[in-house]
Amino acid sequence: MYTLVCPASPRLRLLAITLLVLATASACDRPPTGSTTQPAARTLVVGTEPTFPPFEARGEKGDFVGFDIDLVRAIGAKAGFNVQFKDLGFDALIPALNAGQIDVIASAMSITDERKNAVDFSDPYVEAGLVIAVRQNEQGVRNAETLVGKTLAVQQGSTGAEAADKLKAAGKVKEIKYFQTVPLAMMELTKGGADAVINDRPTAENYVASNPNQVRVLPEPVQSDSYGLAIKKGNADLLAKINTALKELKAEGFLKQLEDKHFAGKTVAGTSAEAPKGFSGHMVAVLPDLVKGAGIAVLVVLIAEVMGTVLGLGLALMRLSGSGVLSVVAAVYVDLIRGTPMLVQILFVYFGVPSLISSLTGSPFNPDPIIAGTLALGFNSAAYVSEIYRATLGSIDRGQNEAACALGLSPVQRFRYVIFPQAFRIAIPPLGNEFVTLLKDTSLLSVIAVMEIVKAGQLYMSRTYAVFPTYLAIALVYVILTLAITNILRVVERRMKLPT
Question: Which residues form a coiled coil (predicted)?
Answer without folding.
Answer: none
